[in-house]
Write a structure and sequence with these properties.
This protein is mainly α and 557 residues long. It has one domain: Up-down Bundle (Amino acid/polyamine transporter I), CATH 1.20.1740. Helices cover 73% and strands 1% of the residues. The protein is globular, with a radius of gyration of 22 Å. The termini are far apart.
Length: 557
Amino acid sequence: MNGIVIMVISIIVLVGAYLLYGRYLAKKWGIDPKAKTPAYELEDGVDYVPTDKGVVFGHQFASIAGAGPINGPIQAAIFGWVPVLLWLLIGGVFFGAVQDFSAMYASVKNKGRTIGYIIEKYIGKVGKRLFLAFTWLFSILVVAAFGDIVAKTFNGFSSVGEVIPANGSVAMTSILFITAAVILGFTIKYAKLNSLVNTLIAISLLVLCIFLGLNIPVYLSLGTWHILIFIYIAIASIVPVWALLQPRDYLNSYLLVAMIFASVVGILIFNPSMNLNAFTAWNVDGNSLFPYLFVTIACGAVSGFHALVSSGTASKQIKNEKDMLPVSFGAMLMESLLGVIALITVGYLATKGNVPTNMTQPQVFANAIAIFLTKLAIPEDVSRTLITLAISAFALTSLDSVARVGRLAFQEFFIDGSKTENEYNVVEKICTNKYFATGITLVLAYILARVGYANIWPLFGSANQLLSALALIACAVFFKSTKRQGWMLWFPMIVMLLVTLVALTLTIVSRAQLLISLKSTNIIGDGLQLTFAVALFALGITVAFQGIKKMLKKETV
């Protein structure tokens, strides 16, 4: 099997799924183009902002993708390319896209509220509070994993102290991106220019940032980048969406789509061979295909984090209900395509059927795509730098969104709807303060980030997929309560619930054994992971039980 055949099959499957299954769901659930969306109904200039479809798509896609669809498939390739490809396509269409669309749909139909609100309204207040606690813990894991990934792509020095030019250029370009995003945000909000002019400004800023970044690299240590990145996340999670989140996603979307387009063209021209085995074994290096494959690939097939973005930020920006299909369903299928590209890159660089062990997953992706693009006469070092830049842009954009989601979840957990803010006690006032909520979230994430994303990833994947199951349960209850058909949510809901509970159980057992045997090399990190795994398991199974109980309850006449 070669890269062209895999790419063509994947594109046909994903485009066909959008045109047939996506439109079928939109028709079945009911889309009203004339309905007043929450973005208009509750417009506040901070979170509720009516936004053009292309900009919201850019926000959604850049936020949900992160480094997940690149890291996951490359890590899971130890089992062979066939199981990875099947899960990317089947999971992406019938699990991930369905979840993202249903979460956004349920949110838009409930004034742009989050999945937590959906659970409160249709399942109960206790379920909501438990879900918020789960979301907060999960957000800490995401920030820790992606924060460490970004820091490593910015790290200016190798293990022997030599400078890494590509990383220095990526770091500087990313800094300039943030500055350009702020400029673009104020331009869009106050200059009131038409969309074409805004697009030209965005592309011009993007090109300028890349040019300056390639020529003025900045070299800082990994530890310094950890600190600076978390300072940036803290700021990004509290400023209005129009000032940084939206314009940054708008800028990044051009870079990310260009990366995917260039990757597809490179694959079609280069036609890389697949040097991976089609199937390796059911158990590789102590990891069994079930559940490891399903929790490792995560974002490329189905991700609970997507439901938080779909219902937490993107739903508040939808101008017209008909935009929900391309923004949610379409963005997820684009992410699955990115996962397929990642699979082809590791397949090409594999030797004797084994995945490369001397490179990180982003390096595998960037190096392979750079080689493919040499067929277009693009210098390999330039391509490698630009691809690495795009990967860091993915992860940084996810950090922008998930830090905000985690902060909001922490605050909302302590909000008492029966009281006014003046009636809150001291603890409630502190915990609902956005600065305190941001601080406690990011401090814990920073501690975990120092453990390294490779050690966090299995726990992140398990929590992510369990969150997906809980989001599907919440949406299924919403569909039943509102007399809409939700049968298409049941199978993915049950599968993901089973997969993740098994995976979390294995994580709990392994971390407990490591700590009890005194073989842990990082007691704080492993202890936190064990604590998180136990808490996530308990919270997840409790919320799932309440939701399924509500879903199976017979309606009284």
